[in-house]
Specification:
Elements (H helix, E strand, L loop, with lengths): L1 H18 L4 H29 L1 H20 L4 H27 L4 H32 L4 H4 L1 H15 L13 H24 L4 H23 L13 H31 L4 H6 L2 H15 L1 H5 L2 H17 L9 H4 L1 H24 L6 H41 L4 H8 L16 H40 L13
Helix pairs in contact: 1-2, 1-5, 1-10, 2-3, 2-4, 2-8, 2-17, 3-4, 3-7, 4-17, 5-12, 5-16, 8-9, 8-17, 10-16, 10-17, 10-19, 12-16, 14-16, 14-19, 17-19
Amino acid sequence: MAFIDGTVVNVALPALQINLNATAADVQWVIESYALLLSALLLVGGSLGDHYGRRRVFLLGVVIFAVASGLCGFAGNIRQLIAARALQGFGAALLVPGSLAIISNSFSEQERGRAIGVWSGFSAITTGIGPVLGGWLIEHVSWRAVFFINVPLAFVVVLISLLHVTENSNLESTRVDWLGATLAALGLGALVYGLIESSQVGFNDRSVIVALTTGVVVLILFSFVEARLSQPMLPLILFRSRTFAGTNLLTFLLYAALGGTLFFLPLNLIQVQHYPPTAAGAVLLPFILVMSFLSRWSGGLVARYGPKLPLVVGPAIAAVGYLLFLLPRIGGNYWTDFFPPAVVLGLGMAITVAPLTTTVMNAIAQNRAGIASGVNNAVARTASLVAIAVFGVVMLQVFKTSLDHRLISANLPSSVAQSIRTQSIRLAAIDIPQNLNAETRQVIRRAINESFLSGFRWVMIIGAALAAASAVTTLFWIEATPRVRTGEKS
């Protein structure tokens, strides 16, 4: 459910812009409201599972997620959808860490790597199904059906969990750090709000300055609070493990690249390349299939070679994949333009994901499996949350600058050019005035598409740089043969 929803909504973004008259910032918030609650509360979700039963909290998350999905489907405007997505993120924060913690506690140290590999494989399969199914539903039913599909899935998940998943927990504490969760949500929310607003009004705007300053101050306060609480949701002592700290830094860099770049890919495919939603959803199938077929194999790489080699090679290959996305032009052929980067990116992530997850879980004692899973998932989600906001600033600024140059070169009437500029916040979804002749409309559309492509290429360059930085992180932070922690008193 969570992995399908994480990819299917991106394909729906162009439809949301049209049907709900949403700006680029609005559709950013459709993704960000979900990611914000998920990022801020994942650690609480992991702790709740550790303390009160992983299956119980997991099932609660599934039910909340399903109810929120129904509310998303019935949303009458973009604000209602954003609010329902936030509730969906809360449900996901309960179910996501529980799934991995349940698996981690169900297998021995020798079997855990391959078990996590299988988990990664099924996650990849559902991630691949999501965009294709979502694209088909958007084309033939409605964007609302994209959310309604979660309801029957939730019923099946609840039934399977009650029949086949045993309850387990570590009742070492009864306190949940709601203060830390609140500070994390407020800090991240203010930071993301400031970044998204800056793309529209600039960094000199007072509201942007206040939001960014508040976000930084609250996040600093969050770190001080967590360091002083006896039972924090984010035990900073975990980061005394060099391997745990290094893998989480790698996770942040790598998933910032993935989340930030893939947010803009469906917009490029549907609005600029004019792919039908179903075809756009299928573009990343090679990426997903490579990850699926190689996940079990990659799950055993840590046992065979140690974590360092796959965690250098994988991100380096992923960086090459992002660079290959610089090549597609407007109207290019799928097999030469989008298939090669999708395969290369999939290979890089396949080599990385299961070893990364295994290394994170092995770096911390198993009685802290829930919180370790929660921290790593929170880092990945926070990375995507921040990256979408930051990449959005880059995309919009490059788009505006490029569009302005092209409009000037086209020698359009000033009133027409100004009408286009005032809609720049919509990116490639800009409405061209209907009273213009066909040739002028074609010139404007070309300018819009080429400007979007300029921004898209900068986004991919940043993604490649982040992936390369994650490979470098492995060299300096992760031991070749880390010691597995089987007991931890602190």
